[in-house]
Amino acid sequence: MSKKPTMQDVATHANVSIATVSYVLNGVKKVSDKTKEKVFESIRELNYYPDSSAVSLSRRKSNLIGILIPMLGDSPAAMFKKNIYYNEFVSGIEVISRKNNYDTMISGVAEPEDVKGWVKKRNLDGLIYIGELPENLYEELIQLDVPLVLIDTYAKEAANYNNVRIQDERGGYLATKHLIELGHTKVAFVPTNLQTSPVDLHRMNGYRRALSESGIAFDEDLVFESYDVKFEQPALVNRIVTADPAPTGIVTVSDVLAIGVINELKKLGKSVPDDYSVIGFDDLIISEYITPPLTTVRQDIFTKGRTAAELVIASIEEESHGHNTVVLPVELVERESTRKL
Amino acid sequence: MSKKPTMQDVATHANVSIATVSYVLNGVKKVSDKTKEKVFESIRELNYYPDSSAVSLSRRKSNLIGILIPMLGDSPAAMFKKNIYYNEFVSGIEVISRKNNYDTMISGVAEPEDVKGWVKKRNLDGLIYIGELPENLYEELIQLDVPLVLIDTYAKEAANYNNVRIQDERGGYLATKHLIELGHTKVAFVPTNLQTSPVDLHRMNGYRRALSESGIAFDEDLVFESYDVKFEQPALVNRIVTADPAPTGIVTVSDVLAIGVINELKKLGKSVPDDYSVIGFDDLIISEYITPPLTTVRQDIFTKGRTAAELVIASIEEESHGHNTVVLPVELVERESTRKL
DNA sequence: CTGAAAGCGCTTACAG
DNA sequence: CTGAAAGCGCTTACAG
Questions:
Q1: Which nucleotides of C are covered by protein (CB under 7 A)?
Q2: Does the keyword DNA-binding apply (chains A, B) (predicted)?
Q3: Does position B142 have pLDDT exceeding 80, yes or no?
Q4: What's the pLDDT score for residue B1?
Q5: Distance B53 CA to D11 C1' (A)
Q6: From CA B244, how far away is CA A231, in angstroms rounded?
Q7: Protein residues with beta carbon less than 7 Å from any atom of strand C
Q8: At B330, phi and psi to the nearest 5?
Q9: pLDDT per residue over B245-291, tens digit each?
Q10: Which CATH superfamily is domain B168-299 in?
Q11: Residue B145 region, left (φ>0) first, then alpha (ψ -120 to 50), else beta?
Q12: Residue B52's closest CA among A66, A119, A116, A317?
């Protein structure tokens, strides 16, 4: 095959200097229209594409955005693999990035040191981090001085960065309120892990607000941590069905959990929504198609990804490294996993 | 923040030339152990990471692998977004790539010209393409002379590249055979699109083989193209339930389709597996947790991704641009969406 | 409006 | 075993 044409080839072909080609390409300086025309013509004919390694090197800008996905346990991919959620999220980032001429790379986060290395090595222009950032990573990242967007974070350090979150408190509130309105008074709350997940804590605040608004006392015995976002939840569900007081409604912090809970309940011969009303959180694509179709709190994960990408890119291009926080709305979607008591 | 250290900084710090640093880093030439030690020491102290733009530029190698995802309709992401499948696949690629010091980028494929541009721009070392490659893309890619792995392709041109496929024919066979063994004689086959999908055609060959093996005549009227891999399938299912002959078993080419079919059947008051036995294909993570748990033909998508990555990387590093074809096994997973007639 | 030249941070023959 | 220097393909002051 023929070697890839360089800027020099274009310059020669157009009978100008490479500086001029560069100017034309970057829309910089006033280049005469005829020259511009010639150059574009040559670019087209030679089918020229600027070499981004060279561009990155000389411009100190890679047009690369890194997406950091926290690891749960072993491999970064395992996380990505299991969590249907990331699919849409990454998708949103991808769309906006491409539109703005950025490419995206994904990496699992193991050691903070690795992240730093990655950013430096690849000259990443910006970073999107999903979830609570480990303390030590904050320090590393500050040193890196790279535009950063934090997703679903409530850490105080987060205030120094861009943030995209959703109305977590309101989500918990809406879900609980819904069950209460349906006549449920014994409502369980199923977070992942209250120690490690501020998001869960905020949703629980909403849960508590809804309870107290209706004069229902908060009961610790109705909070069941699952510790793991996965479909298999025998232990969790066992605790729920044997709980005292016995709940009739279950507010969950994710659709995956809700599906898991419904599944285990079925195994125990219980019916949803006849015996238990269950609410999810997220509204995954699949949630409408399970049995029963899941009542859930919808968040627009795709938009979350888009917003995150828009924020990093703005931050990169303004050189302002601003810290904006965008809180996206949530909404209750009533389907058939909840019923009037 | 302090500027990122360069190789020069390391050289100065270690009191050697940058050439030596480079040699040490690349394990090339025989550098004395003391020197090596000094250099590594400096690298550690300065927390140095080679700039990959510079490396790419001088070594003409980006250590970047591009994943091409075909677009269905509008945005590339839309595809990625909807198809739960890609999640695992990309995950597999990612794991192997990272282990081999490659990063991966994902792009939707719109115009073949765009792909070419992307490869040239980013100096991609290798490419993984999912699905049937448009004719004109073959030509473009040949010119690019970049290691390529084709996934699930049956085009004759594909023989010139690396391929990863699964036992499609066998999958169709196993699914159909299973239904026949359960006593079904009127078995429907639901492909996506026989015109555009050789994969579907191969699975149908398996379907036909199982039929003929049992002395059941193939009946065109029992083939129902869905034309779209999505959960909503009212028209499709309407055709199925009103078909003559009336099928009792349904072999489907994807879990998404199967879930869609089951869903529509329920809406029509039909029960699975009581009225219809339905089989999927893929065995998505979710498929075990829907109602009824889906009987399906499992393929290991994660391994498919891993294999694809291994092939490109081998191809990149051997400079041999080989064309190996790996056919991964499939296996029938019996769950509860099928029953004895 | 256009170009010569230095520089971005590496790699790699070539000398020694 | 080690280093000086050219080169990878761009960008960008600086001159003109």
A1: 1-5, 7-13
A2: yes
A3: no
A4: 44
A5: 14
A6: 39
A7: A 15-20, 23, 29-32, 34-35, 54, 57-58, 60; B 4, 6-8, 18-19, 21-23, 25-26, 28, 48-51, 54-55, 57-59
A8: -125, 165
A9: 999 999 999 999 999 999 999 999 999 999 999 999 999 888 999 98
A10: Response regulator (3.40.50.2300)
A11: left
A12: A119
Classify burial at B57, counting beta carbons within 10 Å of its beta carbon; exposed 0-12, middle 13-18, buried 19 or more.
buried
Does the pLDDT at position B78 exceed 60? no
In whole angstroms, give the CA distance from residue B334 to residue B338: 8
Q: Which CATH architecture has domain B64-166+302-329?
A: 3-Layer(aba) Sandwich (3.40)
d(C-alpha A194, C-alpha A184), whole Å: 24
d(CA B67, CA B91): 11
- B187 pairs with which residues across the strands? B249
Average pLDDT for chain B? 90
Strand D at less than 7 A from CB of A4: yes
Range of weakest confidence among A101-115, B162-176, B192-206? A101-115
CATH architecture type of domain A7-50: Orthogonal Bundle (1.10)
Find the residue in B nearest to A294 (Cα).
Answer: B290
User: Across residues B143-168, what is the average pLDDT?
Assistant: 90
Task: Give the pLDDT of residue A1.
Answer: 44
Q: Which residues contact B61 (CB under 8 A, 6 or more apart)?
A: B55, B123, B125
